[in-house]
Write a structure and sequence with these properties.
The complex is a heterodimer of chains A (514) and B (345). With 514 residues, chain A is an alpha/beta fold. Chain A is built from 18 helices and 20 strands. In chain A, strand 7, helix 6 and strand 8 form a beta-alpha-beta unit. Chain B has 14 helices and no strands. The chains are: A alpha/beta (514), B mainly alpha (345).
Chain lengths: 514, 345
Amino acid sequence: MAAHALACRAIGVTYGSLKALDDVSVAFAPGQIHAVVGQNGAGKTTFARVVAGLVAPSSGSVEVSGNSVLPGNVAASRAQGVELVHQSFALPPSFTVAEALEFGFTGKGALYSRPQLLRRWQSHLAALDVSVAPSARIRDLPVEAQQGVEIARALVTDAKILILDEPTAVLSPTGIEALFQRVRRLKAQGVTILLILHKIREVLAVADTVTVLRGGKLVAGPLPVADVTAPLLATLIVGEAVAGASGDVAAALGAGEISHTAHRGLDSRPKVADLNALSTRPDPEGPALAEASLAIRAGEIVGVAGVEGNGQRTLVRALAGLVETTAGTQHLAGVGSEKLTLAERRRLGLRIIPFERNVEGLSLTSSLWENWVARQLVEGKLLSFIAPRRIREACDRALRAWSVRYETSTQRAGSLSGGNAQKVILAREVDDDAKLIIAAQPTRGLDIGATAFVWQSLRAAAARGSGVLVISSDLDELFDISDRIVVMLSGRIVAEFTAPFDLGAVGAAMTGAR
Amino acid sequence: MQDQVALILRTLVFIIIAILLCAVIFQIAGFSAPLMLQSVVDGAFLRQGALPQALRWGIPLFITAAGVALSFRVGFFNIGAQGQFYMGAIFAAVAAELMRGAPAPIVVPLCLLSGMLGGALWALWPGLLRVRSGTDEVITTMMGNFIAGLILVWITSGPLKDPSGSGQQASSRPLEAAYRLSTSTGISPIIIGIAVLVGVVMWLLVNRTAFGVLAGLSGRNGTMVAWQGARIDRLGLWSFAISGALAGLAGTIEFMGPNGRIASGFLPTHGFTAILIALVANLSVIGTAFVALFFGGLASAALYLPVMAGLPAAAIDIINAAIALFITAKSATLERLFKLRRAAR
């Protein structure tokens, strides 16, 4: 039997009472692309961090090329040639590319000259086919280039094992294809690659073997990819009980064919939102909106696709009235709304499930009932009297109706899991008076069950007559749920598609390659 | 409920530790710690007439602290209670001077309102600076304290100067007896009534109005409240205006009640003690009332200490400072101890 590039023996990691990894023993052959898959919370990222030495396991050991590695020690792992590219990029945004590369490199000499620095890393980038100027600042780079630099950083030293944690989550379809080609080239150079992935389609496209984690336990693997099918993988990932229960599960896992929603003849319904050539000031979190035109009709679900940072946040802020508009008009539920405050827009029926669940959506240190009632209080008069007990009772009824798992309405919102926290937001934002529901990344970080719940809730809201705008970087999600998809690029709405959607065409629009 | 009991117990433990620590320090410095502890307890609570004295000092502290607690709740940090307290007293004194000779039922309410207006205005400009140009309100309210202190010096040694005064401390002419809210005891039905009214109104505002809930939410996570459509700036400005008005009211009560005049640099630590009270009470209105009474007791003990224990009155300031240190630092060891106890339960 050939020596393993990486062998993990009985790895266990516990956080308090939670077993993030439980007795995971797995070995990977050298020079191949190994996928590690599982739901959110299955322990994939923890696994990657243990291998990279970022997390000390409470039990078990890691061996690289037959040498055992000091557990929980990044330097020891790197000395053995293990490098990790993080899910959320870890390069200092204010550094130039060359500085960031030098930072991870313990080279010789204490004195630097800028030209020398640039020259040294120019050739490194060129060798890896990363087309980025070494003098560019990290924060100015688009995500795909940032990822290229991250990979280049990981390969500064002589890496034998490269771990990429969910590298596809931030990329457009074209970007994903480019990443896969880069990974295949590295494999040809003899690097062993561990890809933490989320989507079955991507596993089948790029990996040689696949390993499945569920609830911190090893379910299967490494299995040769040639021996598995999409339905088999889906069952392994979610477990027998859930698999096959719903088409949403397959869509959430990106398992093969994407289901299409037929366009349901909505053209005669009234417009709940109508943006006409709307431009805004630049937003701190992204480019300004540039002459964006978009109409959403009652009962319609419109998806917004695009690589992150192309104005999606500004679009939501513009609809919310939280960014100053410079030109164009907007109507909400038939009323001219450019000048309206967010409170006034909410009275007209605007509902927002914001991007950042734990910051914009909930006050984690406040009680559930305060979080739940906030919208009604804002819509009412500031000095109106309230009856906390009656609010708590109403809150209990609402949270039960939304099947939130909680103990008491006075517990802090921060004590809930991600899925339950999102349900609290749904309970607040999805009601019968909702005319336009904006759902920004509504399923990010949720497990399959909670994801399916969110989608069903949004569909039900649309069926009751609300217009729904879904912003997501997950195309499978958008394809599954949307009646219509618009694509944003640099603050503009550059394309519009109706179901059935074509992955290639949407992907091309996202990168402007049309 | 259990959490609240735990919170109160923890606060008590911190206060006791702070006082014991001071006792140790005073012992080392050559004073008698047992005698000091005894005279603090006696002076504050046990001796004859201790309760009225605690109320005399505690009521103005409570009124100011209730306002400070509100502003902290919203996340607009009003450190300028001292200045607003002075401006309240100044506005009331000027109003009283202008209306000299008018009947008391007109003068007294107008003076009270004028004092509240003065405090509110002195809180409003730092609030507006924060809302309009993002200036740090902690700095501006703090600077406001110094400016108000200097205005007080000017007013008492200039426009309102008592020509018959000969002491080193400049002060205004004494208020006519008809306009006084109390004698120098500082306790009267009117003052107690005002304190109760402030307590009830503030409790209702914080616990029974939309404003109160949104204020609490925005103090803990302003971004979330902004995404709900609430105007955080407006919540913050109102909380500043209210807390300034209450500090001004406390200043007015000191002027029209026990003091009967304003003197330059009077009660120089009032506002800071009020901030401490609000923090010790964990920003709760009812808690503020009890804690203010406690600190009122300590303040009255300050007059009693030199006689009984031979300690300087400033010893009480040291105890206050020690309590402040413990409450704000929230010793990690003790926190862990409490967590363990809770886990064991």
